[in-house]
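for the recovery benchmark. tokens below, seq after
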């Protein structure tokens, strides 16, 4: 299986072989488990009728019911565990060894003896997985497993990845954490599952992040208001002033609150699912470690459907997989110390006590008074009710920096003994299968001897003494004392061989069987914005991970842009530095194509310095040996304005940038034609005429005619339609810069052979502007920087080629300078394409040393870039804002007056138009004006 994963991960994205292989692997994994389950630990509860609530969108119920529309109780909370394997072992229960002895002999993590080094006591995870990875695994486990203390055959959680830890498993749980104020939000930093306070703080911190993510999503859905049906809860519409209609107002408010809440929950759970598939399963398969963006996609969004693998038909977790997800061996050293303290505090006894699990569980349960608003004892709430983001960030940083333990025999901390013993006893009490029976069920070869199961003499001899025959080795013990996989390509979790195979099958079944993660995960249900929000961005520096965006979004300012703690939180930073930065340039290259180049640069901009460092270290392109580099600014543009760094571009916002406008203009005009007044005259007259002519040309070319005779209008009435933003406004300033100013290669349409169309150039200009002017947070910093750097390199390359071409065809630059005069003369008079660049080159003094002259040419290219490229699309964005303002019905009268002035085509009318432009721009200053990229 690992070899198939390696092959698929290295095939191109559009490979037909890769698509077929993935469908085959999904078929195999999905059919490893029966659908529906063959039997249960006890009889399921009677089927619950589908909800009678009528809505125009799909939503999750609080208890997981109605996920399968034909069998509403399938996978519902409160149903019994399924049984996947019916054991045929005839050994009497009294034959099995005492669980205390089993734990001490095969499972317990042993302290070092005086003759041993302390390093032999704790072995870090060989795949570099951090403690935070297993905190998230704990999150998943507690979302689908919640064994009832009174009846251990019942699962109090649903069998779906529905974030039940956050939202709860009943309507009462959900109601306790909701605001019910019309916004669909939850209270600040809350959760419904009382087990959270008994877990390591990193687990609770992750739950809080998803609480904050829900509120962020709800706020965005309300603010965007895609269908125009929501109103602000702070100013609801008054249907009637009489008290008789108060109930109507309240009912409408609650209906809106329910809809926003349910849609936000769908987006939040889908986001959770994406983290499971991309970060968590990516870590299990070692894809992040190997620098691969490919992920196994069991949801069928982009692959052809297979008749053998239905989607959205429900899921029911089994008792065998309950036993499979007890990864206590991976507990880190720091977490082990914390766990011992919790045991002493809750039970009043030391970690070596003989306290039984259920006594401990009931004792712990009694210490929690308010589960819905439970507070971690190590944190205090702010007046707003939220936890400190700095403290949450500190918990997560430490969890990322803390290496998890490796899997294997004798790796479970002694403090977990009551829980481990309870697991062994529970498996026996419900008739659990043996290890070999489970392997046969998974279509794996059964072990023939204890030595084959684990070659370590101490382990397999102890197991043989306890169980006598390999066929008697019970599943729980066999899974966690089995020989572990090495960290080979395709294997990142490195547990036992049986466990690694079963995990993938369960992950496919859990996600593919959930209706709300497959067939009902649509823009209609999640909203268009929500559906786009859950899509992965493989260019964000995280190899397609999704947890990075969650950390930046919910903990703003706590993670430095480019931080390795944020981009790869499931890998220990020291492991990243030693294993990934030290890779040879040949590592990861393959002959299959499609993925070789990205592998060489995945860690290029990664900052693995200590948390809280505000300085961003970056790497030069290609692999280097452990050495960190810093970009050094190359002042070739505006001083304290735009600086260029190794082919990239960075904005230095400084007041001098705005104060030096007049100085730059005087330099540009070379003091000719009475300076700035003449410059403004040229711009308002000659440039205005040129841009106006090109605007009319674009409108004429891009408009389409629509005969509206069928709409009841006269036969001679035809309307012309044009996408004025995409096809006109965005292109006018770009055309002026590309064609008239910089002489960049331009082709007329996408169907012609050549370099770039105007839309292509607009896209590159937009990438530069986004990074400089719209990069307001860490979420998009990496993506904007990467795209901006690529665009800058491409533009500079062509600009330098244009300058070099002019240099070759020019006999005497000084002669051209004398003939042409100033830039102002070029703007105001007759000209040919390329003369502006000749004018710029004329200002460069001739130098006998060719290298020095080339450097000045390069500086000229960057200077032109800094003056023209970053702001070109800002003019388009500003004009789009103006057009949008006056197309609004509330500006109808002003729009008609603008049309009259524009039709006049006189200088006086142009002067009168400007106040309208200023007014529209002034109205948009109160809100962020996004770059319009239609």
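predicted aa per position
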């Amino acid at each position: 299986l690992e070899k198939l994963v390696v092959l698929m991960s290295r095939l191109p994205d559009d490979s037909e072989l890769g698509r077929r292989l993935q469908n085959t692997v999904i078929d195999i994994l999905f059919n490893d488990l029966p659908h529906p389950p063959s039997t249960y630990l006890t009889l399921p509860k009677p089927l619950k009728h589908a909800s009678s609530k009528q809505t125009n969108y799909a939503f999750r119920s609080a208890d997981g019911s109605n996920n399968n529309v034909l069998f509403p109780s399938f996978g519902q909370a409160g149903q019994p565990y399924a049984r996947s394997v019916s054991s045929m072992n005839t050994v009497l229960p009294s034959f099995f060894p005492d669980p205390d002895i089993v734990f001490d002999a095969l499972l317990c993590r042993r302290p070092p003896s005086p003759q041993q080094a302390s390093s032999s006591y704790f072995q870090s995870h060989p795949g570099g997985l951090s403690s935070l990875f297993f905190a998230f695994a704990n999150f998943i486990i507690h979302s689908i497993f919640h064994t009832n203390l009174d009846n251990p055959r019942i699962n109090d959680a649903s069998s779906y990845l529905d974030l039940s830890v956050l939202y709860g498993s009943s309507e009462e749980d959900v109601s306790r954490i909701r605001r019910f104020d019309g916004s669909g939000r939850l209270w600040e930093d809350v959760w419904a599952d009382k087990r959270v306070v008994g877990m390591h703080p990193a687990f609770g911190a992750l739950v809080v992040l998803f609480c904050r993510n829900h509120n962020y999503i709800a706020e965005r859905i309300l603010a965007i208001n895609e269908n125009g049906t929501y109103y602000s809860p702070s100013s609801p519409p008054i249907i009637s002033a009489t008290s008789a209609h108060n109930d109507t107002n309240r009912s409408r408010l609650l209906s809106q609150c329910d809809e926003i809440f349910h849609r936000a929950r769908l987006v939040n759970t889908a986001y959770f699912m994406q983290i499971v598939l991309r970060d968590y399963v990516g870590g299990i398969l070692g894809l992040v470690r190997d620098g691969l963006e490919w992920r196994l996609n069991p949801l069928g969004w982009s692959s052809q459907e297979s008749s053998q693998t239905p989607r959205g038909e429900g899921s029911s977790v089994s008792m065998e997989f309950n036993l499979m997800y007890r990864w206590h061996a991976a507990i880190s050293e720091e977490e082990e110390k914390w766990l011992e303290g919790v045991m002493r505090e809750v039970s009043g006894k030391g970690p070596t006590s003989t306290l039984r699990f259920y006594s401990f569980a009931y004792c712990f349960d009694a210490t929690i008074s308010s589960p819905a608003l439970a507070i971690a004892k190590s944190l205090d709430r702010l007046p707003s009710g939220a936890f400190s983001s700095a403290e949450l960030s500190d918990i997560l940083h430490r969890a990322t920096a803390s290496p998890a333990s490796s899997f294997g025999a004798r790796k479970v901390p002694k403090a977990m003994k009551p829980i481990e013993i309870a697991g062994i006893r529970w498996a026996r009490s419900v008739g659990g299968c043996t290890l070999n029976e489970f392997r046969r069920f998974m279509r794996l070869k059964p072990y023939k001897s204890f030595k084959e199961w684990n070659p370590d003499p101490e382990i397999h001899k102890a197991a043989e003494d306890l169980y006598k025959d390999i066929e008697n080795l019970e599943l729980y013990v066999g899974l966690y004392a089995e020989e572990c996989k090495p960290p080979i390509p395709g294997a990142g979790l490195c547990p036992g061989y049986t466990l690694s195979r079963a995990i993938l099958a369960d992950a496919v079944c859990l996600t593919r069987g959930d209706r709300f993660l497959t067939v009902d995960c649509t823009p209609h249900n999640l909203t268009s914005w929500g559906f786009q929000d859950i899509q992965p961005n493989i260019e964000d520096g995280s190899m397609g991970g999704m947890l990075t965006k969650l950390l930046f979004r919910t903990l703003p300012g706590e993670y430095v842009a480019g931080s390795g703690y944020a981009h790869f939180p499931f890998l220990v930073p020291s492991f990243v530095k030693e294993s990934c930065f030290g890779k040879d340039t040949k590592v990861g290259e393959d002959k299959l194509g499609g993925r070789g180049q990205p592998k060489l640069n995945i860690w290029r901009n990664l900052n693995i310095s200590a948390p809280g460092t505000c300085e961003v270290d970056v790497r030069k392109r290609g692999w280097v040996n452990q050495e960190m580099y810093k970009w050094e600014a190359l002042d070739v543009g505006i001083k304290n304005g735009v600086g260029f760094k190794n082919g990239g571009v960075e904005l230095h916002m400084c007041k001098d940038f705005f104060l030096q406008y007049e100085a730059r203009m005087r330099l540009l005009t070379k003091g000719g034609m009475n300076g700035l007044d003449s410059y403004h005259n040229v711009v308002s007259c000659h440039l205005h005429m040129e841009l106006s002519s090109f605007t009319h040309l674009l409108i004429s070319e891009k408009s389409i005619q629509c005969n509206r005779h069928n709409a009841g209008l006269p036969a001679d009435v035809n309307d012309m339609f044009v996408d004025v933003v995409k096809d006109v406004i965005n292109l006018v300033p770009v055309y002026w810069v590309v064609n008239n100013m910089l002489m960049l290669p331009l082709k007329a349409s996408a169907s012609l052979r050549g370099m770039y169309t105007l839309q292509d150039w607009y896209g590159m200009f937009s990438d530069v502007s986004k990074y400089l002017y719209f990069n307001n947070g860490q979420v998009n910093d990496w993506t904007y920087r990467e795209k901006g750097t690529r665009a800058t390199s491409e533009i500079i390359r062509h600009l330098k080629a244009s300058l070099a071409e002019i240099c070759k065809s020019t006999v005497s630059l000084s002669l051209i300078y004398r003939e042409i005069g100033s830039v102002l003369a070029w703007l105001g008079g007759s000209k040919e394409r390329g003369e502006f660049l000749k004018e710029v080159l004329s200002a460069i003094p001739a130098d006998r040393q060719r290298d020095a002259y080339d450097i000045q040419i390069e500086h000229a290219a960057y200077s032109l870039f800094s003056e023209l490229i970053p702001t070109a699309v800002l003019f388009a964005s500003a004009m789009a804002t103006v057009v949008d303002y006056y197309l609004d019905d509330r500006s109808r009268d002003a729009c008609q007056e603008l049309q009259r002035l524009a039709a006049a085509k006189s200088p006086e009318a142009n002067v009168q138009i400007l106040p309208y432009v200023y007014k529209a721009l002034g109205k948009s200053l109160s809100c962020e004006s996004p770059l319009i990229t239609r």
